[in-house]
Amino acid sequence: MYAAPAAPNVRPVTIADLKALKLAGQRFAMVTAYDVSAAAIADRAGVPVLLVGDSLGMVVLGRETTLPVTLDDMERHSAAVVRGRRRALVVADLPFLSYATPDQAVASAGRLMQEAGVHAVKLEGGAAMVPTVRKLVELGVPVMAHLGYTPQSTHQIGLKVQGKSAEHARQLIDDAVALEAAGAFAIVLELIPASLAAAVTKRLSIPTVGIGAGADCDAQVQVWHDLLGLNEHAPRHAKRFAELGAAMQAALVAYREDVERGAFPTEANSSRISPESLAEALAPVG
Ligand code: KIV
Description:
Blueprint: H1 15-24, E1 28-32, H2 36-44, E2 49-52, H3 56-59, H4 71-84, E3 89-93, H5 102-116, E4 120-124, H6 130-138, E5 143-148, H7 154-157, H8 166-182, E6 186-190, H9 194-203, E7 208-211, E8 219-222, H10 224-227, H11 244-260, H12 275-282
Parallel strand pairs: 1-2, 1-8, 2-3, 3-4, 4-5, 5-6, 6-7, 7-8
């Protein structure tokens, strides 16, 4: 049911396409995906960029933060997303402490690109990440940066809006400019004031991708479970475009009840053996 579309002549989305969208003033959407069916659905919906986010830790693996997510986790889920998509560009998060040095970042990105087949990686952090971004980009790894609330630093910065003081806002603008100069092809801006995100968006020639950063970013990213109503509580910056959690629960109740009263499976769901073959199989041997 969820097989990726068979159209062989779809042209995959490229980083150049995203830059062209920014130039044309055309906003675009990005959504997280963690498995083959989600990737195929989002791809068929025309979403041009899929993020295998390390939010995987919370929404799929039931962890409290992104910190326990490993490169093995990211590789397995990224490979599934790549197998499910036909057209969308797939970006994967470099997990916590997998890019502590530029060389380690190269090795980690190499695994995600070569083994899982993703098209780009995302990493969190400002000016301190510039040498890493530069090295990755020089070696041919497209890098998406991530500023503002950076979940891998949650214990240092707290889950709250970032960049509210003049000093922090200035720092964030400087970081964004430095990351663009280092070669990042886009920057996620998470949980920052809308007017600050608008100012950064105006300053950069690469796309900004907002989440909790107002409407003036070039693109928006949302977590799959938040926008489809699969979480009990979605954050304030998310909009529930469907209530699939409730729909899935209702379907499972119907399934359980059908099984309990013998209404499923029916003849149509069953296969047959000829009475002769069954009789032969049941006959005592010898
Ligand atoms: O891991 C993730 O899903 C993310 C998005 C929230 C941007 O980094």
